[in-house]
Amino acid sequence: MLLGEYEHGIDSKGRLAMPSKFREELGLKFIITKGLDGCLTVYDMNQWGKLVEKLNSLPSTSKQARAYTRFILAGACESECDKQGRVVIPSSLRKYACLDKEVVITGVGSRAEIWDAAKWNEYNELNEENINELAEELSGLGI
């Protein structure tokens, strides 16, 4: 399980050090793709396979299904860490997530997320104000 929050820098070549705990969980190869809320999402190959299976089962006649599938799959790249534990984030994904220098890598259970640090702080501030209401809404789902 991927948990926690780690602050790292990303260099001019797009290299980002992945936390060692995450490298262990993700394995040798993993997938990075566009995520929701302006971040990048990182999946191990098993979780990625499950997601692709679900996406492939969506009806191709649904405009929303086609759009979401394109968003996730077209932006995806297979990645691996180098000997120093760094992963290269492709420029198209860095641009999408506005990754420049300061980055936050978060573990959210079955996946990791890569955020621009300023965006992550802004997202947290916005949601901290509403966390009680959010918890109340989710209580109906058994959480």
Give a written overview of the molecule.
- The chain is α+β, with helices and mostly antiparallel strands and 143 residues long.
- The chain is 41% helix and 29% strand.
- It is built from 6 helices and 8 strands, in the order E-E-H-E-E-H-H-E-E-H-E-E-H-H.
- It has helices at residues 20-26, 45-57, 63-74, 91-96, 117-128, 131-139, and strands at 2-9, 15-17, 29-34, 40-44, 77-80, 86-88, 102-109, 112-116.
- The strands form 2 sheets. The chain has a 6-stranded antiparallel sheet with strand order 1-7-8-4-3-5, with helices on both faces. The chain has a two-stranded antiparallel sheet with strand order 2-6.
- Strand 3 and strand 4 (40-44) form a beta hairpin.
- The longest helix has 13 residues, at 45-57.
- The protein starts with a strand and ends with a helix.
- The model has no long low-confidence stretch (mean pLDDT 94).
Short description:
The protein contains 6 helices and 8 strands. It is an alpha+beta fold and 143 residues long.
In what range is the share of β-strand residues?
Answer: 25-35%
Residue stretches low in confidence (pLDDT < 50, at least 5 long) are: none
Helical residue percent?
40-55%
Q: What pattern of helices and strands is seen along the backbone?
A: EEHEEHHEEHEEHH
Oligomeric state of the chains present here: single chain
Q: Gap between N and C termini, in Å?
A: 18 Å
Structural class: alpha+beta
List the helices and strands and how they pair.
Elements: E1 2-9, E2 15-17, H1 20-26, E3 29-34, E4 40-44, H2 45-57, H3 63-74, E5 77-80, E6 86-88, H4 91-96, E7 102-109, E8 112-116, H5 117-128, H6 131-139
Antiparallel strand pairs: 1-7, 2-6, 3-4, 3-5, 4-8, 7-8
